[in-house]
Amino acid sequence: MFLSTATDTGKTDMKADELLNNYARGIRDFTAVNLSEANLSGADLRGATLDRAILDGANLSNANLMQTSLIEADLNGADLSNANLSGSNLGGAILDGAILDGATLDGANLSQADLTVAKLIDANLSEAELQQATLQAANLDGADLSGADLSVANLTQANLTKADLHEANLSGANLEGANTEGTILDENA
User: Fold this and answer.
1) What residues contact 16, with CB distance under 8 A and at least 6 apart?
2) Alpha-carbon distance 12 to 2, whole Å?
3) Quick one: pLDDT at residue 189?
4) How many CB atoms lie within 10 A of CB 8?
5) Dihedral (C-alpha) 79, 84, 86, 89: value to the nearest 10 degrees?
6) What is the rounded distance in angstroms from the CA atom of residue 169 to the CA atom of residue 186?
7) Are 34 and 19 in contact (CB under 8 A)?
8) What's the average model confidence in pLDDT over 135-156?
9) Which of the four pLDDT bands, split at 50, 70 and 90, describes residue 64?
10) Which of 72, 74, 22 minimizes the C-alpha distance to 48?
């Protein structure tokens, strides 16, 4: 039984337990669902489609979101600390002020995502696609960005202290005012 209600914006309001029950029944498409402020800490939503979903302020800490599609999702201020987003698609997602400390985002697509002032301390972004992403004033202290594609990314005022940028593509990236103290860069870069 699907109890959600559609809103004037075309978004479907849903409670966290309703989403988890539907997922357990095999439903994977939650496009444009409204889960603002939902508590999904530790949830297993592997392979779900949450494109254009509203998850602003949601608690997704320790959640398993491997191979999840979050294209253009609103994760403004969401807590994704220690979440597994390996191989997920967050293209064009809004992660402004999101907490991604310790999150696993290896191989994830974050192209054109807005990560302004996001916290990515010790996050794994190896091989991630961050083309044209906005990481302005983001905290990437100790983050693994090895092999990541940061071409034309905005990293102004970003904290890259002790970040690993080995074999990362920084062509056209804006690093104005970024803190690169102790950053691991290729010697030929």
Assistant:
1) 35, 38, 39, 40, 43
2) 11
3) 46
4) 5
5) -40
6) 10
7) no
8) 98
9) very high
10) 22
Residue with tokens 């054109």: 112
Q: Is a pLDDT exceeding 90 seen at residue 3?
A: no
What's the mean pLDDT when you consider all of the chain? 94
Q: What percent of the chain stands above pLDDT 90?
A: 91
* Residues 63 and 81: beta-carbon distance below 8 Å: no
DSSP 105-123: -TT-B-TT-B-TT-B-TT-
Global pTM reads 0.92
Cβ contact 103:81 at 8 Å = yes
- 3-state class percentages of the chain: helix first, strand second, coil last, to nearest 5: 5, 20, 75
- Measured over all CA atoms, what is the biggest interatomic distance in the chain, rounded to whole angstroms? 59
Of 170, 182, 131, 174, nearest to 156 by C-alpha is 174
Task: Give the type of residue at 110.
Answer: L
Give residue 187's pLDDT: 60
Structure tokens belonging to residue 95: 């992660």
